[in-house]
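On clarity, I found the account of how folds are encoded harder to follow than it need be. For illustration, here is how one protein appears when written out as sequence plus structure tokens:

:::
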Amino acid sequence: MSTANPEIGEVATRPPVRARMIPGYESVKPLVEFLLAAVMLLLTAPLILLIMVLVKVSSPGPVIYRQRRIGLRGRAFTIYKIRTMYLDSERDGPTWAVPGDPRVTPVGSILRLTHLDELPQLLNVLMGEMSLVGPRPERPEFVEKLEHDLPGYRRRLAVRPGVTGLAQVQQPPDTDLASVRRKLNYDLCYVERIGFWLDVRLIAGTVLKCLGVPFTWIGWILQLPDPNRDLDCSSLSVVRCPSSVVR
């Protein structure tokens, strides 16, 4: 079994599967996303400052939350988010957040609902640690168990993790192993189908998600690939689930 060491960032003993991209897109994707992230950060800077003030006056603790995550090819990096939980919320150890989590502050619940707490991750995109679109980066504390329990989990590390992605706009946040298993199907589908037009649709889908549009509608409106129905993705799936279960 492979291990995740947060200090050296090693996750796999074999190179991850390389993503299949449209010729030329692989080389321009980081540059395009860097420029988009820079523009988005500039435009949202006043909003970020306002949110930081609200977080500061509503609960004690740092405004920006730093957390180690596992990125491209198993390398560890520090992700930046606006704090949404009370101070020392993980004094008993790392755990997934759950619906109605009492550790989330009142302001934090609004930020999580609108995903505004993730805006500082644009800095990670500018530093080349993340993409705008890609699989969600996981915490090193969870990676070892996930690799052991979910065959093929490492394949999602073939691309940079994303602020948003196919799994993020089609599934709710992770709460347990079963939810990670369902989202992994979408991650592997994205790795296989990655391309400019898919990325454009996923960015549009993120806007719809933040506006409260249901997951099922987003998938139908934007005609997003579904690993539970799409033959191009079904061979990559870790577990086959009826669409009624995963959406």
